[in-house]
Amino acid sequence: MITKEQKQQIIATFGSKPNDTGSAEVQIALLDSRIKDLTEHFKANKKDFHSRRGLIAMVNQRKSLLEYLKRSNLESYKKLIEKLGLRK
Questions:
Q1: What is the pTM of this model?
Q2: Interatomic CA distance for residues 64 and 41, integer angstroms
Q3: Coiled coil where?
Q4: What is the CATH number of the domain that holds 9?
Q5: Is 20 helix (H, G, I), strand (E, B) or coil?
């Protein structure tokens, strides 16, 4: 689970303003950190299928936000992908 401090750090890193929580970049970065946390959780809890459903929903939401960002602001999309290390 993301702590309040981690969330503030992500918002400060990816946001355009100090309280920018609604931009696509910040939402994608927050989803990415939650997805990474859940992935670690599943290494220890392989049969937690209820949480797996939530993980799949988060991955799909991140995917749709990335598609939106790619359509609307390609330069910002490329920077975000590079910072998060999503594409290989």
A1: 0.94
A2: 24
A3: none
A4: 1.10.287.10
A5: coil
CA gap 26, 20 in Å, rounded: 7
CA 62 to chain centre: 6
Cα 56 to its chain centre, rounded Å, is: 13
Read off the DSSP letter of residue 16: S
**86 Cβ contact partners less than 8 Å away, ≥ 6 residues apart:** 32, 66
pLDDT interval class at 88 (50, 70, 90):
low
Q: Give the Å distances, CA to CA, from 6 to 1, 17, 40, 73.
A: 10, 17, 17, 26
What total number of domains does the chain contain?
A: 1
Domain that holds residue 37: 4-84
On whether the CB atoms of residues 33 and 2 are closer than 8 A, the answer is yes
